[in-house]
Design brief:
By secondary structure, the chain is α/β, with parallel strands linked by helices. The chain folds into 3 domains: about 150 residues, no CATH class; about 120 residues, Rossmann fold, CATH 3.40.50.720; about 190 residues, no CATH class. The chain is about 55% helix and about 10% strand. It contains 15 helices and 12 strands. The protein has an 8-stranded mixed beta sheet. Strand 7 and strand 8 form a beta hairpin.
Length: about 475
């Protein structure tokens, strides 16, 4: 486990401890300290309050998770983190006050006795809740991250990184990384287009190869990120570099002068303490991605149960309609280039690709009689509920493609490989907006739809696409 990943778990534990400590201190201040005569109850059962505190702390950490507070903070200043945490901890402190004082407030309102609430002691109690929660939560978080930063400073668990461009700019970035080990990145080599630089030592690090060799270098060295540092005014060149790495789960950085080259294609965030922009390939917060996966698991289980009888009938009908097995499996390329076996009901003759892979076309003679019905109704996709349950696919996403066509399309369709940033789907925005692929032009059109989905992906959008898919299935729109 990397130190930064360990840090996320440590911060979660720190929040849980901090919230319970804060609630215990609030209990003492309110009921045992004697500061407020209105709330002084030395005989109040602390055990009952401790149970409530545990429930509230779990709710608080869940809320923090939904707000994305368990991301990597090593690239942000402490001031930024404190500001963000203070905002969300304020809402948590209001929740604590509402739960612990709700009945008292309602009783005062019911008897028109607001003067019981709006007192010096009452205002102090409200402010004390807020201040105590902020002090404990921010304090424990900073202590946990100080420990993580000390580990990173000592070189423990740093993520590897490539610097693209063995230039003066690349040297400057290397020096900044060396002087800021707490960021958690360790450069292991340069990548440069100059063939004469290959194998040379540049400022203490080897030049590993050219940009076109990035896929092999990434598989060999397994870096967690790259920095595009070379100075270039060519937008196409920068996009070409990105096309080599887009299929890998990397953090990508770019120098600010080059930000306009990637504008509109990546979300960005300034990196604290170093002149870089961080390019975020993920467009869903962590909690929403987890919710998407939970929906995938639940829906695929229910989908297999509900369609099980239909699939059993189709197995017999397919084998009766044409010679060959009922199921068809094929290797496809999934998220970040991972290979998996995709399962469908067979809709073509068994010798459909005797001459090699080729596009399906309208009135394709290779498609069986029943196959046309299955494709039009999308029933041939039912076995892919198993792929969704396994995690190879999602309910919603771009359709998975074969490596043969990916190698062809990556050179013919701009930004085609950005589809590999997403988990492939059983259905998708492109599927409900367009027909089956029968040409390169169809692929180009679908890529535009896939990239639109990538920029706007969310659970509500997924639900809308699933509902639209039901309409497509019922009407036969988009299939042939």
């Amino acid at each position: 486990m990397s130190t930064k990943k360990f840090g996320k778990y440590l911060v979660f534990l720190a929040d849980l401890v901090a919230m319970n400590l804060a609630l215990a201190f609030i209990f003492w201040l309110r009921y045992r300290s004697g500061f407020s005569r209105e709330t002084f109850e030395p005989g109040r059962n602390f055990l009952h309050y401790a149970q409530l505190a545990l429930i509230l702390s779990v709710a608080g950490t869940a809320y923090f998770y939904l707000k994305g507070l368990y991301r990597d903070w090593s690239l942000h200043s402490r001031a930024v983190q404190v500001a963000v945490v203070t905002r969300d901890a304020t809402l948590f402190s209001l929740l604590v006050f509402a739960v612990t004082s709700g009945s008292y407030l309602l009783d005062a309102l019911r008897h028109h006795q607001l003067h019981r609430v709006i007192t010096f002691n009452g205002v102090f109690i409200v402010l004390s809740y807020w201040i105590i929660v902020l002090i404990f939560v921010n304090g424990c978080r900073l202590l946990a991250q100080m420990f993580v930063r000390s580990m990173l400073t000592q070189g423990q668990g740093q993520d590897r990184l490539f610097i693209l461009g063995a230039t003066e700019a690349g040297e400057h970035i290397l020096n900044e990384l060396v002087s800021a080990p707490e960021l958690g990145w360790k450069a292991v080599g340069f990548v440069d287009e100059n063939p004469a630089m290959r194998g040379q030592n540049f400022t203490g690090l080897p030049v590993l190869g050219k940009y076109a060799e990035l896929p092999d270098l990434i598989r060999t060295y397994k870096p967690g990120g790259i920095i595009i540092s070379h100075e270039s005014s060519s937008h196409n060149e920068i996009l070409r570099v990105l096309s080599y790495v887009v299929e890998f789960p990397l953090t990508i950085f770019i120098v600010p002068d080059l930000y306009d080259a990637a504008s509109g294609h990546f979300k960005t965030n300034a990196v604290h303490g170093i002149a870089l922009k961080e390019l975020f390939p993920e467009h869903m917060p962590g909690w929403e991605a987890d919710l998407k996966r939970l929906i995938d698991i639940t829906a695929s289980i229910f989908g297999m149960i509900l369609t099980g009888p239909i699939m059993l009938v189709l197995i017999f009908i397919i084998r009766w309609d044409s010679v060959g097995p009922a199921f068809y499996s094929q290797e496809r390329v999934g998220q970040y280039g991972r290979r998996f076996r995709l399962y469908k009901f067979r809709t073509m003759r068994t010798d459909a690709e005797a001459a090699g892979p080729q596009w399906a076309s309208k009135k394709d003679p290779r498609i069986t009689r029943l196959g046309r019905i299955l494709r039009r109704s999308r029933l041939d996709e039912l076995p892919q509920f198993w792929n969704v349950l396994r995690g190879d696919m999602s309910l919603v996403g771009p359709r998975p493609e074969r490596e043969h066509f990916i190698n062809q399309l990556r050179h013919e369709v701009p930004l085609y490989l950005r589809r590999l940033k997403m988990k492939p789907g059983l259905t998708g925005w492109a599927q409900i907006k367009h027909q089956y692929d029968s040409s390169i032009e169809d692929v180009k059109t679908k890529v535009l739809f896939d990239l639109w989905y990538f920029e706007n992906m969310s659970v509500p959008l997924d639900i809308m696409i699933l509902l639209r898919t039901i309409w497509v299935v019922l009407t036969g729109k988009g299939a042939h």
